[in-house]
Amino acid sequence: MSKLRPSLELVVPVPVGTWGLDGVVKSLRQSREETHNIRYRGQIRELPSREALQRILDGLSAALFPTHYGQPVLTDESIDYFVGDKLNTALNDLAEQVRRGLLFVSRQGDEDDAQPVVKSGHDASDLDREAIEITRNFASQLRHIRDVLVTDLQAAYHGDPAAHSVSEILVCYPGMTAIIYHRFAHALHNLGAPFLARLISRIAHSGTGIDIHPGAEIGSSFFIDHGTGVVIGETAVIGNRVRLYQAVTLGAKRFPADESGSLIKGNPRHPIVEDDVVIYAGATVLGRITIGKGTTIGGGVWLTHSVAADSNITQAQSRNI
Amino acid sequence: MSKLRPSLELVVPVPVGTWGLDGVVKSLRQSREETHNIRYRGQIRELPSREALQRILDGLSAALFPTHYGQPVLTDESIDYFVGDKLNTALNDLAEQVRRGLLFVSRQGDEDDAQPVVKSGHDASDLDREAIEITRNFASQLRHIRDVLVTDLQAAYHGDPAAHSVSEILVCYPGMTAIIYHRFAHALHNLGAPFLARLISRIAHSGTGIDIHPGAEIGSSFFIDHGTGVVIGETAVIGNRVRLYQAVTLGAKRFPADESGSLIKGNPRHPIVEDDVVIYAGATVLGRITIGKGTTIGGGVWLTHSVAADSNITQAQSRNI
Amino acid sequence: MSKLRPSLELVVPVPVGTWGLDGVVKSLRQSREETHNIRYRGQIRELPSREALQRILDGLSAALFPTHYGQPVLTDESIDYFVGDKLNTALNDLAEQVRRGLLFVSRQGDEDDAQPVVKSGHDASDLDREAIEITRNFASQLRHIRDVLVTDLQAAYHGDPAAHSVSEILVCYPGMTAIIYHRFAHALHNLGAPFLARLISRIAHSGTGIDIHPGAEIGSSFFIDHGTGVVIGETAVIGNRVRLYQAVTLGAKRFPADESGSLIKGNPRHPIVEDDVVIYAGATVLGRITIGKGTTIGGGVWLTHSVAADSNITQAQSRNI
Amino acid sequence: MSKLRPSLELVVPVPVGTWGLDGVVKSLRQSREETHNIRYRGQIRELPSREALQRILDGLSAALFPTHYGQPVLTDESIDYFVGDKLNTALNDLAEQVRRGLLFVSRQGDEDDAQPVVKSGHDASDLDREAIEITRNFASQLRHIRDVLVTDLQAAYHGDPAAHSVSEILVCYPGMTAIIYHRFAHALHNLGAPFLARLISRIAHSGTGIDIHPGAEIGSSFFIDHGTGVVIGETAVIGNRVRLYQAVTLGAKRFPADESGSLIKGNPRHPIVEDDVVIYAGATVLGRITIGKGTTIGGGVWLTHSVAADSNITQAQSRNI
Amino acid sequence: MSKLRPSLELVVPVPVGTWGLDGVVKSLRQSREETHNIRYRGQIRELPSREALQRILDGLSAALFPTHYGQPVLTDESIDYFVGDKLNTALNDLAEQVRRGLLFVSRQGDEDDAQPVVKSGHDASDLDREAIEITRNFASQLRHIRDVLVTDLQAAYHGDPAAHSVSEILVCYPGMTAIIYHRFAHALHNLGAPFLARLISRIAHSGTGIDIHPGAEIGSSFFIDHGTGVVIGETAVIGNRVRLYQAVTLGAKRFPADESGSLIKGNPRHPIVEDDVVIYAGATVLGRITIGKGTTIGGGVWLTHSVAADSNITQAQSRNI
Amino acid sequence: MSKLRPSLELVVPVPVGTWGLDGVVKSLRQSREETHNIRYRGQIRELPSREALQRILDGLSAALFPTHYGQPVLTDESIDYFVGDKLNTALNDLAEQVRRGLLFVSRQGDEDDAQPVVKSGHDASDLDREAIEITRNFASQLRHIRDVLVTDLQAAYHGDPAAHSVSEILVCYPGMTAIIYHRFAHALHNLGAPFLARLISRIAHSGTGIDIHPGAEIGSSFFIDHGTGVVIGETAVIGNRVRLYQAVTLGAKRFPADESGSLIKGNPRHPIVEDDVVIYAGATVLGRITIGKGTTIGGGVWLTHSVAADSNITQAQSRNI
Questions:
Q1: Residue (of D195, C320, C165) closest to A316 by Cα position
Q2: Which 42-101 residues of chain D touch chain C by CB within 8 A?
Q3: Are residues F171 and D48, on separate chains, in Cβ contact within 8 Å?
Q4: Cα C299 from Cα B296, distance rounded (Å)
Q5: What residue stretch is flagged as signal peptide (chains A, B, C, D, E, F) (predicted)?
Q6: How far apart are CA C265 and CA C275, in angstroms?
Q7: What would the pLDDT profile of E125-180 be if each residue is shown by its tens digit?
Q8: Which residue does chain B place closest to A141, by CA atoms?
Q9: Of B14, B22, B77, the CB nearest to D77
Q10: Which DSSP helix (H) or strand (E) runs through D314?
Q11: Cβ neighbours, 10 Å, residue C10
Q12: Mean pLDDT across the stretch B68-74?
C-alpha cells in the first residue's frame, strides 16, 4: 500500500474574520423597509410549518395503510388503538396548521400591492372554529379517500408490467406518493384551506418530481408512471382510469390579464381529460380543451385543441440527417 | 425603523377539537376489510426500511470511495480498518433488508388478485440462508463495481466541459449518484433481490430525478448529465461509453396483455443502445429497437424504430409564426 | 374484524453471516491503488460539507427574509439581533466551507490525468486570507441580492394566476428556492469560490428539480414556474423580466474538443436570452444564440438558431392518426 | 468595548497522528483471549438496550399518567386510543427486552468462573414464549401498580410542606420517578426478568441518585424526599406509609462466604421496616433487623440492631471544640 | 484468535404477543376515574416542559458567559448580536413556560384533596400579562445575577486547591452549575413563578446531585465542592463567602401539622448560616437555628441547635474495636 | 367515562413581550468588561467539548469491551476491523480535545488574578505535536488499562452478593462506569492532559454520583458498590483489592494557605489506603493518613488519623431516646 499520509500533518483551520456586520445588518434593515409594500403590516402570523405538515402526512398515511406506512407488528387487538392515536395526533396538528394557513388569504381587488390579509370579519376564535370545522370535515372524508386510493393502487398494479406487488407500489412508486398527497391536498383545498393544500403539493413535488395543483379534480383508478416532470394545473379535470407518464403537462395556454394588466386568477384554463385516456411521456396538453374518452396521446405530443373520443394522437416524425 | 410589533400581543393558539374518532376508526377498519383482497393474509412481514437502506448505501459508498464519501482524515494505518468496519456494518444490515425483501415476491399465475406471497418451499431458515448467500455474493462483486464506477467517473470528467475535478463530480453530480446506486441495485436484482433493488432505484430517483430500473444493463464509462427526468426501463441494454442528457426516456412502446387482459410482465420491451451513443435532452426512444453504435440522437427526438450505426437523428424543425 | 394475527408468532430474525471481509477489503485496496491516477496525492483536503452548506443557506435565507425563513415572533427590539447573529454564524461557517472548496481547483493544461490540485503559490495562511476575503465580499453583496430577490418575488406573484400571496410563493414555489440559491451561488462563483457555488446548485437541484449552473448570469424579475427539469448552462446570459416553465433547457449545442481530444472548457456555448422573453414548458434552446427581446417560445420547441426581437416560435403540429 | 479579537486570526487545527493501530488492536485481542474465562462462549446474545428501556419506561409512564407524562391535549374521545397505543408499543418493545434479558442468567453452582449461561432446557421458542408470558403478566398488573402509585403521590403531597401540587410532585420530585420505576422493576423481578429489572433500577439511580434494588418489597404510600444517596438493598422489606430522606441506607451488615470463599447470594440480609416509620437524612440501617412500626430514626444514625415499635433513635451528639 | 462465531447463525427474534389491551386500557381508565380527586377538573393546562426549560437555561448561560457556554469564536463585532439573540429566544421561550407554570398554583385552604387550581381572578390575558411582566423583570436582573456569579466563580477558584483555572470551574464543577441554575430559579421564585423555579432546581439536582430549593436565600461568593447529596431547604438563609462540601444538609427538623393533621406549609424551618461559614462533608444542620459568622462545622456533624460566631464543631470520635 | 374535555376550547397562547433587550445586552457587556480580570485576553481558545468527550469515551469503551459496549453481532472476521476503526476515530477525536485542553493551564505564581494562560514557549505546532504524543502514549496503555479493568470486573462479581453475571456488572453498575472512566482519566492526567482528565471525571460524576479526581492512584481489583456520593481526592493513593460503599469520602482535612492567603495547590493531602481495605457507607476519611492493609472501616465513621493494618473501626453508637 502506498503512503497515504505522513505521520504528522496539519489540517488547515477555519479562519476567523470580521464581516462588517453592523453595516450589513443596517443595509438589510433598509432593504426590508424599502420593500415594505410586500411585507405584511398586521398581527403576528405564523406560517404553516413544512416539517409539521410532513409529520401530519406521515401520520395520515399510517392511519390509512397501517402495515405499510405505520408499523408491521399490528395485531387484531392493537390495530384500532394505533389508527385512532395516529389520527388524533395528526388531526390535532392539522387543525393548528389549517388555522395558520387561514391567515394567508389574498385580499380581493387588491392584487396591485401583493398584500395578503386576514379574511375580513375573522377574529381569533372565529379562526379556531373554522380550523376545527375544516379538520373535522376532512376527518369524515378519510374513509372515502382511502377507498379511492385503493383503486389507484390497483390501477398501478395492472398498468405497469414492471410492478410485482402492491407492496412494491406503495413503497417504491413516486406516483403513488403523489396521488396520496394530492387526495389529501384536494380535500383540504375544497374545504377552504388552500394555502395548506398548496404546501402539501409542494412537499409531494419535492419528493417525487410530480407537481399537481391541489385544485385539480382527479377521478378514481389514476396512475402516473415514473412521473418526473408531470405538471397538472389548478383547473384541470381528469376522469376515471386515466394513465399518465413522466413529463406530461396538463397546463394553461395563455394567461389573460384584466384591463389593469393584472392576471385574472381562478378561471378554468387547464384541460378536461375524460375517462380511460392514456398520455405518454413528455406530451404537453394546454388550455381548456377536452380530450375525449378513451383517447391515446403519444409521447412528446404538443396539443392545444380538443380531440374526440378514442382519438390516437402522435408526434410529427423525427428525421435522419 | 418602523414599528414591527406592539409590545404586548397574542399569538392565536391551537384549537382543541373533537374529530369523531370512533366513527373514523371504524370506517377505516371497514375499508381495510372490504379491500382485503389486496391485503396480505399470511405471516407477519416487515417491509424493507428506506431509512436503513439509505444508511447501507451511504456505508457502501464510503467503503468504495473512503475519502470522498467516508471521512477525509484516513491514514495508511487506519484506512483498511475503516473500510472493513463500514463494510461489515453495511453488509450485516443489507442481509436483513434482503431477507425482508425476499418475502415480497409475486405469485406466478395469480396476478388477478394482486396477492404477493412467500416463495413456495421457503421457510424462515431457508430465507436466512438465501439472504446471507445473496449478500455474500454481492460483497464479492464490490471490487468489480468500484472498477466500473471509476470508468463512469472518468467519462463524466471527459464528457462535461463544466467539470473541473473528479471531486466535483463525486460530490456535485446527480448522474454520479444515480449510477453508483444503479450498479448496487443491478447487482442485487441479478442476485435475486428485486424488491430491494427497486427500493434503491426509488431512493436514487427521489434524490436525483433520474429513474433507472434495476433490471437495466449498463456498460462502462456511462455518463448522464443534469439528468432530471431521465427514465431507463427494466429491459433496456446500454453499451459502453454511452452519454445521456436530461429527460431522455428509454421506454416501452406498448404493453401487450394476455388473453385475460393482464399485462404480460418481464418480456424485452425497451431499447438496446450500442456503444458510443449520445442521446441529447428530451429524446424519447421507445420499444425493443436497436440504436446502432456511434449514433447521435438529437434533443426532443421521438424514436420508435431501430437506427443503423453512426446515425444522426434530429427533430423536425420548429417554425416561426 | 377478521383475525389479523394469531396470538403468538415469530418474526424471522436477522441472519448473521460472514462476508469474506479480508478478501473484499484487500480487493478494494487494490482497486484504489490501481486507479491512483484519479486519486489526489497531496496534503489532506476536507471536502466542503453538504450538510454544513445547507445550514448556511438556511441561515442566509433567514437573515434576508427573517419572518418567512427565520422565526415569526420578531419584534422591533429583537429583529436586528436575530439578523446579526444569523449572519455571523452563517458567514463564519461559510468562510470555512469556502476555504475547503479553494483546495479543489483544476490544474491548467493537465486535464489528461484528471488531477485537481491546490492553486500554485497557495499555502495555508494564504488560503485563510483568501477565504475570509471572499466571504467578506459576499457579505457586502447581501443587500443587493435581497433587493433583486424582491423583484423575483414580485415577478412570481404577477406571473402566476395560481399565486395568492407572496408568502405562498416564498414557502411553496420551487422556483423561488432555486433563484435564491442561485443568486448566492452566482455571487460566490464570481468571487472565486466555484466549487462551493457548484455544490449550492446541486442542493437546489436536488430539492427543486431545477438545475442552474452558478456561472449563469440572470437579470432581475426572473420567474420559473413548476420548474422540474429546467437546465440553465454555465455561460447562459438572461435579461430582466424573463419567465421560464418546467423542462426548459438553455444548453450547449456541441462541445468542441482540442487537438488532444479533450473538451475545451469555459468558452461561451449557451444562449443569450434578452429582456421580457417567455419560454414555455419543454422548450430546448441550444448553443450561443440570441433570443431577441420580447420573444415567446412555445412549449416543446427545439431551437438552435438566434431569433429576432418579438418573435413567436412554436412547435411543428402533432397529427391525429 | 475593549478589543475582543483582531480581525484575522487562526484557530489551531486538529492534528493528524498515527497511533500504532495494528499493535493496539493486536494487544487488545490478546487481552480478550487471555481473559476468555470471563467471556461468554455460546450463541450470540444481544444485551438489553438502555435506550430502548428508557423509551419503554416513558411509554408506560405515559399510559399510567397520560396528561402528566403523555400529552396535555387529550379528549374523552382520544384518551383511550392514546393509552392503548402507548401500551401496545411499550409492551411489544418490553417483550423483546425481556427476551434478551432472559439469556443473562447465572449458572448455579458455577460462580467460580463468572460464566453466565442460558437457562438449561431453553431454546429460542421457549424463550419467546416465556418473554411473552412475563410481559402479559406484567401488563395485567399495571392497574394495580397505578393504584399504589397514587398512594405514593398522596404521601408525597402530605409529607412535604414544600409541595404545592400533585403536578409539582409528578414533574419535579426525584423520589416520585424512583418509586414509579421501582414498581415497574419489582414486578418484572418477581415475574422472572431480574436482569431487565436491574437495568431499570440503574436508569432510575442515574437520574435521581436513588438506588433501590428491584428485589426490595415496598408497601403503599411510600415517600422519599430529596433522595440523593438513598440505597435500599435486594432483600429489604418496607411496610406502608414509610418516609425516607436523602442518603438513607437500608443495607447488608456483612456478606457471608461459603467454604470456597464465594459470597452466598440471595439470602435475607437487609432490614425489615414496618409501617409508619420515618428515617431521616443520612441514617444507615444494616442487616436483617426489624424497625418496629411507628419508629422514627434520626439523621446520621448508625443502626445494626432491631428496635421496638414507636422507638425514637437519634445520633450521638456532636461537640463544640 | 479463537472462534468467536460460526458462519451462519440465528439471532432469536422479537416475539409477537397479545396483551389483553382492551382489558388493561379499561382498568386504567377505571383507576383514573376512581382517583379523580387527584385529577384536575378544569381547563386544559400544559405542564412546563423540562426539555424547553433546559434549552432556556442553556441560552441564558450562553448569554451570561458567551465564550464558555456559548461559542468560542466571537468577535468584537459579533458578540452583542449573539448575546441579544440568545436572550431574545430564551426570554420568549421563558415567558411561555412561566405562563404554563402560573396555572399550577395550589388552592389555599384546600389541601385536603390536593387540587391545584388557577389563581382566582385570572383569565387567559391576565396570565399572559403576568407571564410577560415576570419575564421582563427577570431580564432586568440578569446583570446583577451575572455579577454575583462572578463572585461565586472566584470563590471556587480560591477555595479549591485542585482548581487550576476559571475555565475548569465553569466547565467541570457541578457546584458551579448548581449555583448558576439556583440564581436563575431563585429570581423566578421571588418574582412569582414558583413552579417553574422548582423545575429548574430539579434539573440542577438531576445533573449535579445538588438539591437547592429555589426559595433558599444565598449570598455572594458561595462555593459547593463535589456537592453530591447536598440539600438546602426552602427557607434556608445563607450569608456571603460560605463554603459547603458534599452531602451537607441544611434541612428542617420537624414538620408541624395543623389541627386537621395537614402539614403547615411555608413557615421558616431551615437554618440561617451567617457569613464566612464552612461546613464539611456529610454534616446535617436542621431546624431554624443560626450558625454564627465564621463558624466551621466538621464532616458528619449532626447539629440541631444554634452555635455562636467562630465556633468549631466536630463529630464525636469513632473508636477502634 | 366522565367528560374530560368540551369539544371546543382554547389553549392559552404564548405571549409576545418586549424585554428591553438593548439595555440588558449593554449591561451584560459592562459586566463582562468590569470582570475582565477573570477573562482571558489572548488568542481564541476552544474549550474541550463535553459532547465530543462523551463520544470518545463511548468509542474507547467499545474498543475495550466490543460486545458489551460496542455491538453484539461481531464475528471472528469482523471484530478487529470494528476495534481498529473505533480506536482510530476515538483517538483522532481525542487528540483534538487534548490539544484544546492544553491551552487551559494555570500560570504559576499568578493565582491572584485567576488568569489561565498558554504554557510559555508553546506555539501552535508545538501544541499539535504534544497532543499527538500524549494521545499516542495513551493508545499504547490501552491494553494495560483493559487488563486492570478485568480485575475490577472480577472484584465486583465476587464482592456483591446481588451480582448475577459480569454482563450485569458491565451494564448496570455505576461503580464499573466510574472506574472505567477514571482509568482513562488518570492515564491522561499522568500524560499531561489534566484539564481533559478533569472533564472526564465530571462526566463520570454526573452519570454515577461518584466523584474521583483524575489524580488519584487506584490499584487493581477495585470495587465501589452503589457509589452515590463517593468522593476520592486528587492525591489519594489506593492499593489493590480495596472495596468502597456509597458516600465514602477520601478527602483533605485542611487546606493550608501560603503567606499571601492563597491555597497551596498540589501537595499530598488525601489518605493512603493500603491493600485489602473495606470502607463502608458514609465513612469520611480525611488528611494524609494511612489506612493499614486489611483494615475495615465501618459506615458513617469519621476518621482523621492513621490506623494500623487489620484494624476494625466503627462509629460511636446511636442511642434510643
A1: C320
A2: 44
A3: yes
A4: 23
A5: none
A6: 27
A7: 788 899 999 999 999 999 999 999 999 999 999 988 888 888 999 999 999 999 99
A8: B24
A9: B22
A10: strand D312-314
A11: 16
A12: 84
**CB neighbours (10 Å) of residue F3?**
9
Q: Do A7 and D15 touch (CB under 8 A)?
A: no
Per-residue pLDDT of chain C (321 residues), as tens digits, is 334 433 333 333 445 678 889 999 999 999 988 875 444 444 567 899 999 999 999 999 999 999 899 887 788 899 999 999 999 999 999 999 999 999 886 544 333 333 444 444 445 678 889 999 999 999 999 999 999 999 999 999 998 888 888 899 999 999 999 999 999 999 999 999 999 999 999 999 999 999 999 999 999 999 999 999 999 999 999 999 999 999 999 999 876 777 776 667 778 999 999 999 999 998 999 999 999 999 999 888 889 999 999 999 986 654 554
Query: Which positions 257-276 of A are in contact with B (Cβ < 8 Å)?
Result: none
3-state secondary structure chain B: CCCCCCCCEECCCCEECCCCHHHHHHHHHHHHHHCHHHCCCCCCCCCCCHHHHHHHHHHHHHHHCHHHHHCCCCCCCCHHHHHHHHHHHHHHHHHHHHHHHHCCEECCCCHHHCCEECCCCCCHHHHHHHHHHHHHHHHHCHHHHHHHHHHHHHHHHHHCCCCCCHHHHHHHCHHHHHHHHHHHHHHHHHHCCHHHHHHHHHHHHHHHCCEECCCCEECCCCEECCCCCCEECCCCEECCCCEECCCCEEECCCCCECCCCCECCCCCCCCEECCCCEECCCCEEECCCEECCCCEECCCCEECCCECCCCEEECCCCEEC
DSSP C23-90: HHHHHHHHHHHHTGGGS--SS--PPPPHHHHHHHHHHHHHHHSIIIII-S---TTTHHHHHHHHHHHH
Rounded Cα distance between D313 and D299, Å, is 9
Lowest mean pLDDT among A193-202, A263-272, E110-119, F251-260: E110-119
Nearest-angstrom CA–CA distance, E109 and F192: 62
Nearest to C71 by CA among D236, E92, A170, E300: E92
Q: How many angstroms separate the CA of residue A285 from the nearest CA in chain C?
A: 10
Put simply, the chain C residues between 136 and 195 with a CB less than 8 A from any chain B CB are 194-195
Chain B: residue whose CA lies nearest to E13: B124
Q: How far is A289 from C303, CA to CA, in rounded Å? A: 27
Of E1, E76, E286, nearest to D1 by CB-CB distance is E76
**C-beta atoms of F8 and A44 within 8 A:** no
Mutate to test the interface with E, among B22, B88, B128, B135 (most CBs of E within 10 A): B128
User: Is residue F214 within 8 Å of F232, Cβ to Cβ?
Assistant: no
All 3 cell numbers of residue F197? 482528565
D107-160 per-position pLDDT tens digit? 443 333 334 444 444 456 788 899 999 999 999 999 999 999 999 999 999 988
Count chain A–chain D contacts defined by CB atoms under 8 A.
69
Q: Taking the CB of residue E144, how many other CB atoms lie within 10 A of it? A: 13
Residue A94 has pLDDT above 90, yes or no: yes
Q: Are B5 and C74 in contact (CB under 8 A)?
A: yes
Q: Is E303 on the interface with D (CB under 8 A)?
A: yes
Q: How confident is the model at residue E10 (pLDDT cuts 50, 70, 90)?
A: very low
> CA nearest A297: which of A271, A277, A268?
A277
Q: Considering only residues 99 to 128 of chain B, which have any Cβ-Cβ distance to chain A shorter than 8 Å?
A: 104-106, 111, 114, 116
All chains having 3 or more CB pairs closer than 8 angstroms to chain B: A, C, D, E, F
- DSSP type of residue D47: P
CA distance B149 to chain A (A): 21
Q: What is the ipTM of this complex?
A: 0.87
Say yes or no to pLDDT of A105 above 80.
no
